[in-house]
Task: inverse folding
């Protein structure tokens, strides 16, 4: 098992209209604010456009020593030299990816309830689960039902005995970070709390402070 670094897990959510320069400036701001884990989520970029973004983010994360995860696409993760991939319930399954993935690369899987988390755990193929949405979110189309902090705490307690980390996701604001950490999550994945801020770097700094404050 390779552990995802603890704390703030920043997601660069590249919108269809976002080109390389915009993705680069969001990435720089998150990294200069101190993000140690960064995921590239670019649902509407495909093929060579996606790989170009991923290569750029890989260079920037490498420079700052941050862990880089690519959403959805293990092939792109390998091609750009990322540290891992994040898979949804409808993406390639973690067992298949693990068979083919370079050793020690990280595999994360989105889970929306305990049953899904148990299936991931029994596959022994993933390093962490992304659990949520913990709160209502507007960053995902057709999000799964909100799970809440109590369910998050139960999943964290259950996963504590396993080689499986839990990263909370969905509607997490900077002010909610202490609650997420107290629930036992290893990390908290944020989109709008960071990218929706007028100063992304300052929001990231504040997020790291809030995480450390517990
Ligand atoms: N998966 C579950 S909720 C979510 C994803 C990708 C979106 C999280 O975004 P935000 O803005 O932090 O709620
Ligand atoms: Mg996915």
Result:
């Amino acid at each position: 098992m390779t552990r995802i670094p603890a704390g703030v897990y920043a997601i660069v959510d590249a919108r269809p209209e976002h080109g390389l320069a915009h993705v680069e400036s969001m990435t720089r701001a998150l990294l200069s604010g101190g993000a140690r884990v960064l995921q590239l989520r670019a649902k509407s970029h495909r093929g060579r456009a996606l790989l170009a973004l991923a290569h750029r983010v890989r260079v920037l994360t490498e420079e700052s020593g941050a862990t880089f995860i690519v959403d959805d696409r293990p092939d792109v993760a390998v091609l750009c030299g990322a540290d891992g991939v994040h898979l949804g319930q409808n993406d390639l399954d973690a067992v298949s990816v693990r068979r083919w993935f370079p050793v020690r690369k990280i595999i994360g899987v989105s889970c929306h309830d305990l049953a899904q988390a148990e299936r991931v755990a029994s596959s022994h193929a993933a390093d962490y689960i992304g659990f949520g949405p913990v709160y209502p979110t507007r960053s995902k189309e057709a999000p799964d039902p909100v799970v809440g902090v109590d369910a998050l705490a139960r999943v964290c307690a259950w996963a504590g005995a396993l080689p499986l980390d839990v990263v909370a996701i969905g509607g997490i604001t900077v002010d909610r970070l202490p609650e997420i950490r107290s629930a036992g999550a290893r990390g908290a994945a944020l989109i709008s709390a960071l990218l929706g801020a007028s100063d992304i770097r300052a929001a990231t700094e504040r997020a790291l402070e809030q995480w450390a404050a517990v």
